[in-house]
Amino acid sequence: MTTCEHNPAGKGAIRGQLIRMVLIPSVSFLLLWALLTATSTTGALRLAGTVQRGEAGIRALSLIAAELRAERKSTQEFLGDGSAATHGALQEAREHTDTIFARQRRQASRLLGSADTELDDRLRDFFAAWKGLPALREKVDQRKIDRETALQEYTSVLSAILLVNDAIVARLHGDGPHTDGAIALELMRAQDRYAQADALLAGASAAGGMGYSETAHFTFLTASYRDTLDRIGPELSSPARTAHQALHQSPSWITLQELSLQVLSRPPVVNSSETAEFNTEIPVAATEWQRVMDVTEPLFQRLVTAQTETVLDNAKAAALQAVVVTVVGCLIVLLAGSVAIVYALRLARRLIGRLHRLHSETLAVADSRLPEIVARASTGARVDVTAELPTLRYGTDEIGRVADAFNTAQRTAAAAAVRQAEIREGANRVFLGIAQRNQRLIHRQLCLLDEIESAEDDPVALRRLLRLDHLVTQGRRYADNLLILAGAGTARQWKDPMPLIDVLRAASSEIEEYTRVRLCSVVQTRVHGHAAADVTHLLAELVENAVNFSPEPAQVDIDTKSTPDGVAVEVVDRGIGMDPDQYARLNATLAQPPEFDVMALSAEPRLGLFVVARLAARHGITVTLEPSPYGGVLARVTLPNSLLDQPRESAAACSPPKELSGIPVAEEDSEGSSTAEDSPVQPGATP
């Protein structure tokens, strides 16, 4: 006797050695690729994060600047006339400014800690300038500061915001062109000068006149923002150019320029006895000026926003492009490396691949092709094993010889399986023939018994004949079992629906000890004729099983309940019950009937439950076993709605039994509940 020599390297040593030859350089490549990918991806994502924080910072600072400009104008008006009304408006403007700053400070603070020290310094300068606002506001409230100085103080805080925006835009552009960003910053400064001119004129109007220095400052501010708008117009982005055109073509903008010109070109005061003096009177009504500003200010803001959005969109596009280029580049490198690794693995696994294919094809034949051949043979079809089974062709080497051995083994197994199927089919035909002959004989016996019973007057003899009738009926059911095992249907069929009470009584009459069966209240419904015989047979098997496993003279209860899915028939015995494993195994058999050959190999064939499972599967009936309240087994049979002919009414509770034709039944209990007394079916009778 020889023993197989194993490779000292262990199982699968050849495969392991070949794979290790490829695996070591492959793992090294993957580690290097992962390092490079992490580095480049981190840089691209950092750029995307910078753009996101920069966008949030610009938007936050723009909101703060807008509120600060409104507060600056209200300050000029209060310092101009000092009235309670203007002071109240100033307080409201301050509250708005503080509220917006509190909301947007967090977004602006996210810019701190970046790699750009200039941005950090400018942002800290802005926060420091903001901290000086309370002192400035106190001076304004006490009127210890003039309008021009207050205007400069507020403008210095706004200038700090513009410097932060300068640093943000420079960082967003990186090494790219700065044209769009520079234009956006110029527009922001022009907007501030435009707002300064508005605040200056509002303060002068409130004070009742504009002095020489204020007029000169107003002239500078007006000329500055107008020059900026005229100069950068052709260089604006497309959306900003549209907004620029809408601003210049607005009637309110034209009116604003005319009013500004009136303020700038007012004539001096002429007195015949004195030298001409500077005219401080403002020839423009404050209400008219404010009306025009209410229209032009949103248009100006739209222009600034359009250009700023262009800068942000370009920055986001550049960041996205960097991320995409990085990811695509890494994927290309990974793909190239993967192709090389896969190619190397294919070379290393060429030999063992043939064995894997041989294994898979052999299993495919055993798992699918062979069962298909057996199934066809079971139906009586002729099967040519040589033609049906595919031949595994793997050449003439060692692997090919193994494949040839598999071919021989599979043909032998298939031939044996086909032969077994033919034997099983022959056995089924024998069962079917025996059952049919028994059915004919039993039918003749029942007819003869009916004649004898009709002619018999002796009660004792009639009782014996009835008992014999039950035994013959039970024998008919056993003959039906053979038909069911052979795959055929029962010989009995009904055309019309059959009341459920009749079905239950017929099932009880098909067992020998029918006197131990007690029918409780029955749901008032009918069973379709095509299923009535099978339902009767199914219930009779369960009732007989319950009687056999219940000690004498214990009774077996049959009760029914209406459910949403149909009608549940419960057969309750008083036996010793089963353990949980037995319940699980038998419920599995009832839910999925096994092949008859499996049943034949079982230590306890339980042909009755196998017949029940076959009948339940045929009609979609659910049968389950569970412990009963009496310690025995409760068999629940759920008849689906598809087998029932009419609406159901609820059944009454189980009542004490009384004798009727030898079968204990419950008395009628309530409306909608039928009892066995109403049934015309007698024990042993054929419905």
Structural class: alpha+beta
> Could you give the distance between the termini?
71 Å
Flag low-confidence runs.
Answer: 1-6, 652-687
> Could you tell me the mean pLDDT?
78
Structurally, how many domains make up the residues? 3
Description:
With 687 residues, this protein is α+β, with helices and mostly antiparallel strands. The chain has 19 helices and 13 strands. It has three domains: 250 residues, no CATH class; 85 residues; 187 residues, Histidine kinase-like ATPase, C-terminal domain (Heat Shock Protein 90, 2-Layer Sandwich). Helices cover 67% and strands 8% of the residues. Strands 4-7-8-10-9 form a five-stranded mixed sheet. The radius of gyration is 51 Å and the shape is elongated. It starts with 12 loop residues before the first helix and ends in a 13-residue tail after the last strand. 31% of the residues are buried. The N terminus and C terminus are likely disordered.
Could you provide a short overview of the structure?
One of its GO terms (molecular function) is ATP binding. The protein is an alpha+beta fold.
